[in-house]
Write a structure and sequence with these properties.
Elements: E1 3-5, E2 17-21, E3 29-34, H1 36-41, E4 43-45, E5 54-59, E6 65-70, E7 78-80, E8 89-95, E9 99-105, E10 113-119, E11 123-131, E12 134-142, E13 163-167, E14 174-178, E15 187-192, E16 197-201, E17 206-209, E18 214-218, E19 225-231, E20 234-239, E21 245-249, H2 256-261, E22 267-271, E23 297-301, E24 306-310, E25 316-321
Antiparallel strand pairs: 1-4, 2-3, 2-5, 5-6, 7-8, 8-11, 9-10, 11-12, 13-16, 13-18, 14-15, 14-17, 19-20, 21-22, 23-24, 24-25
């Protein structure tokens, strides 16, 4: 099957793309590594599996997501001619089926608008009557162009909601720029060590050196506030209960061995995850609003006998067992 596939809008971190068919329930890609530029310009695939009615366009790389596009098959044209003996009435009707021209605009994440225009040739019916009184020909032409535009608004909720955790699984340090979850201030040229992760506002992270990073999953800002108006003049505000965990740490050292050698608890820090090594950020206060300036030193969690390296903005850059 030959199919023209066009993405009119694709996110900055999307691509390259793999193409899947619903024939095998999107199991095996029939085309791979198609660039975003080619798909935005309009790409004709000549190897779409027969019987395909929907194609999944799946983005790999930094941003992993997909969109399903339903195929529209053009109508066929049927012409019927009937010949009758002289002296009777002959009716020949030629009907041209609409040639379906479908333009689909797909927003990669967000509302999708579909505009369908169907243009059909005019329909002409010719009736000829032959007999003793002569020949009479009557031709009737009916307009045959119909344009229909329908707009469907679909809201797609991204599985990562508002914040996402990215981890450096490569063998070298990566330099990134991102906005920490729960913040509006971007952090530029941050050094993300291998096996370390950050919790970033959705769509804010970029990698300038190293990578690619691994998308771990969803992470959360410290607090959530919901304001609801029940009746005019009455407003209630609900704040989600804050969950935090306290850690008793030794003072910072220049390396993990120095930190692990000290068993006395010198400071208390706080985090939003009970697991010491998987915390993205450490805080000075239990309100989780003031990130701790760790100066990229190493600290020991006395209760778990583990160490962690904390950056100047409180983010974990390394960790392990003592």
């Amino acid at each position: 099957m030959n199919v023209l596939i066009t993405l009119t809008t694709a996110g900055a971190d999307t691509g390259p793309f793999n193409l899947y068919s619903n024939v095998d329930n999107y199991t095996t890609a029939f085309e791979t590594n198609i660039s975003k530029g080619i798909l935005v310009a309009g790409y004709t695939s000549t190897i779409v599996p027969p019987g395909t009615t929907a194609i999944r366009v799946w983005s790999g790389g930094i941003c992993t997501n997909y969109v399903d596009i339903t195929l529209t098959v053009p109508a066929t044209t049927t012409t019927t001619t009937t010949a009758a003996p002289v002296g009777t009435t002959t009716s020949t009707t030629t009907t041209a089926a609409p040639v379906a021209t479908t333009s689909t605009t797909t927003t990669y994440v967000g509302p999708a608008t579909t505009t369908t225009t169907t243009t059909a040739p005019s329909t002409t019916t010719t009736t000829t009557t032959s007999g003793g009184g002569g020949t009479t020909t009557t031709t009737t032409t009916a307009a045959g162009t119909t344009s229909t535009t329908s707009t469907t608004s679909t809201t797609t909720t991204n599985i990562l909601s508002s914040c996402e955790e990215w981890r450096n699984d490569t063998l070298e340090e990566a330099t990134i720029t991102y906005t920490p979850c729960g913040s509006v201030t971007p952090v530029s040229n941050y050094a993300l060590a291998t096996s370390s992760s950050v919790c970033a506002v959705y769509g804010s992270i970029t990698v300038t050196v190293g990578g690619p990073l691994t998308l771990v999953g969803q992470c959360y800002a410290p607090t959530t506030t919901t304001t609801t108006t029940a009746i005019p003049g009455t407003t209630s505000t609900t704040t989600t209960a804050l969950v935090y965990y306290a850690f008793s740490l030794t003072a910072g050292g220049i390396d993990s061995a120095t930190a692990c050698a000290d068993s006395s608890a010198a400071i208390t820090l706080y985090g939003s995850n009970i697991s010491f090594l998987s915390n993205a950020t450490f805080y000075n206060d239990y309100t989780l609003l003031s990130p701790y300036n760790g100066s990229n030193l190493y600290y020991k969690n006395v209760s778990n006998n583990e160490y962690v390296q904390i950056s100047s903005i409180g983010s974990q850059t390394a960790g392990g067992s003592c």
